[in-house]
UniProtKB/TrEMBL annotation:
It is a multi-pass membrane protein. InterPro entries: MFS_dom, MFS_sugar_transport-like, MFS_trans_sf, Myo-inositol_Transporter, Sugar/inositol_transpt, Sugar_transporter_CS. The chain crosses the membrane at residues 12-37, 57-74, 86-104, 110-131, 143-169, 189-211, 269-291, 303-324, 336-359, 365-388, 400-423, 429-447. Its main location: membrane. The lineage of its organism: Bacteria, Pseudomonadati, Bacteroidota, Sphingobacteriia, Sphingobacteriales. This is Sugar porter family MFS transporter. PROSITE patterns: MFS, SUGAR_TRANSPORT_1, SUGAR_TRANSPORT_2. It is found in: Cell membrane. GO terms for molecular function: transmembrane transporter activity.
């Protein structure tokens, strides 16, 4: 007989769902901002006559903004709280979307993209951090993975809106819709592609006005009663008190400075926190997201069909992230990561073979990229956030996660800058084989270094590194 949920349990589930959905809007904006560039790039490149290096700079400018955002958000989130930093990221997203749509030249467009990058940088640290600190241990992996699902949803939304706006533009070439509408939706359609980000950014800011601060941050900063009140909304009161006791017992060992991150007990988690984000970006995912239409166009597929293929890629990325949500708290982090990384390696090798042999006009190339995205989506993509948000003590979690995500964005900047140069010089085959090698290295790192953390509280995970 199916057990009925108590009214308190239903209320807790609704509260936790609402808070998670609002926090993951930061992930949706992250994905949208990252993927929208794939549809924008051909038009901006043509309008501003970009060289390969300038094209890389246009893509990487947002990533420079990410690095700036990461540089200050980790420390500030430990000082002023997670919620305030999420609200700042929403404001940066809004300013970027409006600034990109209204920019009068390439320099202003770059500056607007950098603002959006700063928003992405802040959200990429603070959103998974916030979710991990408010989620019960038994479903923490699943809820943090929802952040990655939101990223894939943002990527898919960007692909769909890019294709829809392009289709609208092509069908109204000979129409006159008014000076501004004609400019934004027809003549320079890339403006509306970028400007649409203002809608979810505004929703994100409004939603954040109704969520509480992280309970662990409140307790660490002496606001125990407020922390208990928040924890009591996501679990029962007895469990909330138990969590408070665990947090306070570990509090005395937390120095809360960057020096602690480099202490002997933290060296292994710190190294894990650097290497997983590094190799996630060198997996080839952003080559597909940023330069997908160009890669497919070079393979003989026209721009409209290339954007359609991107939509298929986006659907695969979104759908297979659901596997991670389903299995991460049952199968565990390690088995899921190892299986996905192995699959991604094989798919990238086969993608390179397709380009090497010239078999790029058939279905094989598209299928191999879809399978790569599927493997990435249930392993390398979400689990870097899950693992990195779990392995550090609460008082330094913002700072340490900031360094982890900084590594991710530095690597992403390098990939964004080098990919068009690699495609021009060594060719797509060798480029994809290089990404395959990076995926294999990430598999080895998880196999050798990463402990299983499923079902453990954040404080129990901390005990692993303390040697208990």
């Amino acid at each position: 007989m199916k057990q009925k949920l108590s009214p308190e349990t239903k209320t807790s589930a609704l509260f936790l769902t609402a808070v998670t959905l609002i926090a993951t809007l930061g992930g949706l904006l992250f994905g949208f901002d990252m993927a929208v560039i794939s549809g924008v790039l051909p038009f901006v490149k043509s309008q501003f006559a970009l060289s390969a290096a300038t094209e890389g700079w246009f893509v990487s400018s947002a990533l420079i903004g990410c690095i700036i955002g990461v540089a200050f958000s980790g420390d500030l989130s430990d000082r002023v709280g997670r919620k305030k930093m999420l609200m700042l990221s929403a404001v940066l997203f809004l300013l970027s979307a409006l600034g990109s749509a209204l920019s009068s030249g390439f320099t202003l467009l770059i500056l607007a993209r950098m603002l959006g990058g700063m928003g992405v940088g802040v959200a990429s640290i603070v959103a998974p951090l916030y979710i991990s600190e408010i989620a019960p241990a038994r479903i923490r992996g699943r809820l943090v993975t929802f952040y990655q699902l939101a990223i894939t949803a943002g990527i898919l939304v960007a692909y769909l809106t890019n294709a829809g706006l392009l289709n609208f533009s092509l069908h109204h070439k000979s129409s006159y819709l008014g000076t501004i509408i004609d400019l934004v939706l027809v003549k320079e359609v890339w403006r509306s592609m970028l400007g649409l980000g203002a809608i979810p950014a505004l929703l994100f800011f409004v939603g954040l006005c109704f969520v509480p601060e992280s309970p662990r941050w409140l307790i660490q900063n002496g606001k125990t009663d407020d922390g208990i009140a928040v924890l009591s909304k996501v679990t029962d009161y007895a469990t909330a008190l138990k969590d408070v006791t665990l947090i306070k017992n570990t509090q005395s060992r937390d120095i809360g400075t960057y020096r602690e991150i480099f202490a002997p007990a933290m060296r292994k988690p710190f190294l894990i926190g650097l290497l997983l984000p590094l190799f996630s970006q060198f997996s080839g995912i952003n080559a597909v997201i940023y330069y997908g239409p160009r890669i497919l166009s070079d393979a003989g597929i026209n721009i409209s069909n290339a954007l359609l293929s991107q939509i298929i890629f986006g659907i695969a990325n979104f759908a297979f992230t659901l596997i991670a949500i389903w299995k991460v708290d049952k199968m565990g982090r390690r088995p899921l990561y190892i299986a996905g990384a192995l699959g991604a390696t094989v798919c990238l090798i086969f993608t390179g073979v397709c380009f090497y042999t010239g078999a790029t006009t058939g279905i094989a190339l598209v299928v191999s990229i879809i399978l790569f995205l599927a493997c990435f989506a249930f392993s390398i993509g979400p689990l870097k956030f899950v693992i990195a948000s779990e392995i550090y003590p609460t008082r330094i979690r913002g700072r340490a996660l900031g360094l982890s995500i900084m590594t991710m964005w530095v690597a992403d900047t390098i990939v964004g800058q080098l990919t068009p140069m690699f495609l021009n010089s060594i060719g797509p085959a060798v480029t994809f084989w290089f990404f395959a090698a990076c995926c294999f290295f990430s598999l080895l790192i998880v196999y050798k270094m990463v402990p299983e953390t499923k079902g453990k509280s954040l404080e129990e995970v901390q005990e692993i590194w303390a040697g208990h």
